[in-house]
Amino acid sequence: MNHPLKKNFSGIIETICGCMYSGKTEELLRQLKRCEYAKQNYQVFKPHIDRRYSDTEVSTHDQMKVPAIVIEKPEEIYQNLKHNTQVVGIDEAQFFDNSIIEVAQKLANHGRRVIFAGLDTDWQGLPFGPMPHLLAISDIIRKQYAVCMVCGEAATKTQRLVKNTDDILVGSFDLYEARCREHFNPNLSKQTETKQEEMNLSPQL
Ligand code: ADP
Ligand code: TMP
Ligand code: MG
User: Fold this and answer.
1) Which residues line ligand 2 (CB under 6 A)?
2) How far is it, in rounded angstroms, from Cα 146 to Cα 180?
3) Distances from the Cα of 182 to the Cαs of 10, 68, 74, 153, 176, in angstroms?
4) DSSP assignment of 63-127
5) In order of start, what are the domains of the chain with their CATH numbers?
6) pLDDT of 2-17, one tens digit each?
7) pTM for the full model?
8) Chain centroid to CA 124: how far?
9) CB of 157 within 8 A of CB of 164?
């Protein structure tokens, strides 16, 4: 069933967010499949930073794929946009600079449905790139949950498994796993962690 806001979703911004492995890209692909049933033309974009599974496609961790245009700057969406495109899907939105915000507003104001998928928080559990702003201007928000790899509860955090404090570190199972709040410990990625923290995933406050 369509969202009550708009019967055909035209002129709308949607954001699918959550931690890694929560099914953001799966949900994006599911929405695009529904567009096919509705005979709507769509195009998909992703940032050049993400070359994990494919150079020419957006891919889920389970290797479900859809063709995508790789761009460096959000403005390149305009250059690649076909006149008859009704739906614009954008994966890994957290990696774009803030100009993605104005691009999204313009696309929606001109009647396009814009669907973002992106990490709401980074390895520290802090807001990631333009995501807080995109969530604020979205008409529809979907928050996805993964499974905590320690206890099996719902996971909202992404645990980085290696010592590295860069904001951007592209990868998947070798570098990250999903965790619930209780078992999330960003200090594990910092060089300065104590031996106690290394052994204890949920240090006493
Ligand atoms: P995202 O884009 O949010 O990182 P994907 O849509 O690419 O996620 O992949 C989601 C898939 O990841 C799930 O359907 C599942 O098969 C797999 N997966 C791997 N680890 C987990 C986990 N800890 N919790 C849930 N799904 C997981
Ligand atoms: P995913 O949400 O589709 O799994 O992809 C998230 C990408 O973001 C993945 O390549 C790892 C990367 N990433 C960072 O660059 N920095 C971070 O702090 C986190 C948590 C992930
Ligand atoms: Mg993804």
Assistant:
1) 20, 24-25, 50, 52, 119, 122-123, 158, 168-171, 176
2) 9
3) 40, 36, 36, 10, 16
4) --EEE-EEESSTTHHHHH--TT--EEEE--GGGS-THHHHHHHHHHHTT-EEEEEEESB-TTS-B
5) 12-145 (3.40.50.300)
6) 555 555 677 999 999 9
7) 0.92
8) 16
9) no
> Reduced to 3 states, what is the DSSP secondary structure of residue 62?
coil
Which tens digits make up the pLDDT trace of 186-201?
999 997 655 545 555 5
Residue type, 133: H
**Residue with the two structure tokens 């300065």:** 192
Q: Which residues are catalytic?
A: 92
Q: What angle do CA 176, 182, 183 make, to 5 degrees?
A: 30
Tell which atom from ligand 2 comes closest to the C-alpha of 124. 18
B/e letters for 110-128, b = 16+ CB within 10 Å, e = fewer, are eebbbbbbbbbbbbbbeeb
C-alpha 48/C-alpha 71 separation (Å) is: 6
d(CA 144, CA 100) in angstroms, rounded, equals 22
